[in-house]
């Protein structure tokens, strides 16, 4: 049995976070297979990749071949990377399922140009993500989370209710929505405390009702507030 003491998060149980390098490994596989589909015109290549992504999203990471390869072969050698909110890359995979399925259907319908264009689009974005870490689908998710909150009048977090924090907020305060395994969350909290801020944390894993109340769709999210709870600035 392999030694997993290097892991802060279990990749198969702590599914609300993910090693930031795992989605990039998955995107490399997605990009290469989508590119092969675009170059060869074989409908089953995008269909195969769409099916693999859909199975992983439905049944869990143990059914995602690229994910298992990363967690079992690469992560033990590289060590655990930064842990991030898993919702944005999950949404990116869902977008991949839709577009790759569209590519396969287009090929089967005889619309080879459309099928190739859709496969090439996925290949380009997936390989960009694998190479640079910039995930277009993740950014769309984050923008959508903000817009959903704004549509309910809460995404901008205009005011924090002090009663959610024992009835009072100290001066120079920051409210941070965090997760106990999120690397960026811990880094942000350390920086804020080092800067002399009074940090009030909301663990979205144990207090999901507060995340819903304030329309928070991704962590870390942090806002500076005055003593009445009015938001002065959005910090993250």
Question: Any overview of this molecule?
Answer:
A 4-stranded mixed beta sheet has the order 4-3-5-6. A two-stranded antiparallel ribbon has the order 1-2. A hairpin with a 5-residue loop joins strand 5 and strand 6. It is elongated, with a radius of gyration of 20 Å. Helix content is 54%, strand content 11%. The chain folds into 2 domains: 130 residues, no CATH class; 82 residues, Glutaredoxin, CATH 3.40.30. About 3% of the residues have low confidence. The protein is built from 8 helices and 6 strands. Helix 1 runs antiparallel to helix 5. The protein has 236 residues and is of the alpha+beta class. The chain starts with 16 loop residues before the first strand and ends with a strand. The longest helix is centred in the middle third of the chain and has 22 residues.
Helical fraction equals 40-55%
How are the strands of the largest sheet arranged? 4-3-5-6
How is the main sheet built?
A: 4 strands, mixed
N- to C-terminal separation? 40 Å
Quaternary class: single chain
Q: Helical element count? A: 8
Mean pLDDT: 90
Number of strands: 6
Coarse morphology: elongated
Strand content: 5-15%
Radius of gyration: 20 Å
> Which structural class matches the secondary elements?
alpha+beta
Q: Could you give the order of the helices and strands?
A: EHHHEHHHEHEHEE
